[in-house]
Amino acid sequence: xxxxxxxxxxxxxxxxxxxxxxxxxxxxxxxxxxxxxxxxxxxxxxxxxxxxxxxxxxxxxxxxxxxxxxxxxxxxxxxxxxxxxxxxxxxxxxxxxxxxxxxxxxxxxxxxxxxxxxxxxxxxxxxxxxxxxxxxxxxxxxxxxxxxxxxxxxxxxxxxxxxxxxxxxxxxxxxxxxxxxxxxxxxxxxxxxxxxxxxxxxxxxxxxxxxxxxxxxxxxxxxxxxxxxxxxxxxxxxxxxxxxxxxxxxxxxxxxxxxxxxxxxxxxxxxxxxxxxxxxxxxxxxxxxxxxxxxxxxxxxxxxxxxxxxxxxxxxxxxxxxxxxxxxxxxxxxxxxxxxxxxxxxxxxxxxxxxxxxxxxxxxxxxxxxxxxxxxxxxxxxxxxxxxxxxxxxxxxxx
Length: 399
Prior knowledge:
This protein is mainly alpha-helical. The chain has helices at residues 2-19, 60-76, 81-89, 93-107, 112-123, 131-138, 146-161, 168-175, 181-191, 200-208, 213-225, 266-270, 296-309, 337-350, 359-366, 370-377, 383-393, and strands at 24-27, 35-42, 45-56, 235-237, 245-247, 258-260, 315-317, 332-334. Helix content is 49%, strand content 10%. The strands form three sheets. The chain has a three-stranded antiparallel beta sheet with strand order 1-2-3. Strands 4-5-6 form a three-stranded antiparallel beta sheet. It has a two-stranded antiparallel ribbon with strand order 7-8.
């Protein structure tokens, strides 16, 4: 069969490059992409990998052409950039997007969910691929928004894959349009809806009313420990004698291993959190060979969907925010799982029972920086909560 013959040709010429000690080696992933790739190997370590699209591994003449380019590059000591430019810029938008997705699946599977949507937007662009079209696509977003930053990062991934359409000059130009980090975060927060932060009493009453034991357990875990929703699936251990848990390592979660205290402790017993009910939930983590979780975004999204569609709504009245300078309104807000995480952060900052916990320690337990903690997670704290927290922290220590 022709594919078998062509695969044999790829194997033959790949082995020749290895035997000749060539720094450029041919590679293909037939199940993911029809195109040939080149890996640059120096002292046994891979420096980079890039596509030779539109050269295909199923075409014998393409394999031979790629083999000759590898030899020429070895003689020169570097890959002929013009050769790579011609190949990568001759693709259609859809092929460029799908090839970058395939590359991310191999090299950076954890980030695939972040970039797939944006790459597919690029795949829908019209006309011949041009750098100017990518520049215009990126600038469709507000430079102060999170979406603009992700668009720049998406272009960087296209560059990393091996396309000459994106270079460092373009990325620097687009980054220069962003406001400062602090101003960017402030603008993004102001544009978002107010967070629905439930009180501890309201949250407890709502949790008490959940009839589904697995969902009650999962959402109580988020509320008691301020977890990201997907972290419910990555517990290193269940609550110990003092109620502390451990969250899994960096390959499984967004920010890696960390211990977390319960707030409040009584919820550990109230909601039976020492019983592991992860297996009773209808969603399952998927891991690659290295142990990296591939579907954290899906897991968190499904828990949020279940909270929205299968459970009674947890609602709060919009409160005045000391940070946002907004007045209280009669707007009714419906909570999502991430609001329970925000509520945990505000609870530690305002409840006298946790006056001994610094913002730095709270941020460490949540898995982010002190700046993110104060600028994002305490953004919707009210003036009364700020006053209560400060009073508790300034009380004299009893003799």
